[in-house]
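Supplementary notes for students who missed Thursday's class. We covered one full example, reproduced here. Read the sequence, then the structure, then the short commentary at the end.
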Amino acid sequence: MSRTAAFDAIAPTYDASRGGTARAAVFAAQLAPLLDPAEPVLDIGVGTGIVAAELTARGHRVCGVDLSPGMLAKARERLGARVAVGDAGRLPVRTGSVAQAVSTWLLHAGPDPRAVFGEVARVLRPGGRYLVIPARGMRPTDDIGRIVGALEDRLDPDGARQDGPELLAPLAAAHGLDYEGTASERPTTFRVSPASMADSIEGGRLFTGAWQVRDEDLPLVAEACDRLRALPDPEVPRVRRMADFVMVFHRRPA
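Structure (token representation):
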């Protein structure tokens, strides 16, 4: 299944599987203080538009681009005509026309980060900023996290789906985007049992369908599910801790 088809398929349940409006409002609250309200915002990988809509409610003018028509159908309900189909690695945007851009949970989901940073560097004005909220920047290290993290590393030995600063900063720098560091860090907790985590990834549905696992790798997923269900008290939810944060990149002045 192509990446576009995979996101089209999960579009109807995408928001609910990722915390809905409440989680989107948290992301918007992290991004908004770092954005200039006088300048439009380009949301790269806008998805269903749920974060963009929260930024709009805070007074920002947001336009969005996404590869998935299924996701954009949801985004149009929220943002109207301010969205367009487009690949993050081939943005349908004029060179040097963007003052600020954002991406939330994009770079772990399959696009080539080199191509994305190349395009961001192209469309940003000199001095423009690119704000990135990573999905995997700080993974939980509890008993569930150790098993799932080991699985992700086995499925992604080259780190192509890593989206933390240690990987992205040098890729960005190669395209003229300097990494300023992290901002708006927000610790969060949630409750998940090992058994429910095993149920959620069984059959290769990592990231609730956003990561398509190859058939030949399904035994690795099954092994991880067995390990999760073998943990002590697998039906008892764990209080899991992680932190959401924003990575800040800026386009070098001309």
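Commentary. The mean pLDDT is 91. The two ends are 42 Å apart (CA to CA). If anything here is unclear, bring it to office hours.
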